[in-house]
Amino acid sequence: xxxxxxxxxxxxxxxxxxxxxxxxxxxxxxxxxxxxxxxxxxxxxxxxxxxxxxxxxxxxxxxxxxxxxxxxxxxxxxxxxxxxxxxxxxxxxxxxxxxxxxxxxxxxxxxxxxxxx
Length: 117
Known about the structure:
Elements: H1 8-21, H2 24-40, H3 44-57, H4 60-76, H5 81-98
């Protein structure tokens, strides 16, 4: 809830509490949200490490988005284009395997993971 009111530090604390005590699914979703907050706070290394973990443990849609976010960080913040390409390719392979493509009804790129149906 803190995120909704623009209190990034409070939302980070809330997500970290969920990471410590929540269910597996809650921890994955909290980690995903926490990584976005870390990115907004320009804590890019921490965001990347969280997304790398989420990319291994989340459901397919979360894994895809985590790989895309890793690719963005590698390209724009760390200037590691090879790593960015690798993450993009993994996301693409997951999308092909699952029959997910931009423009289909099951994926909303503008809304991110909240747009999945």
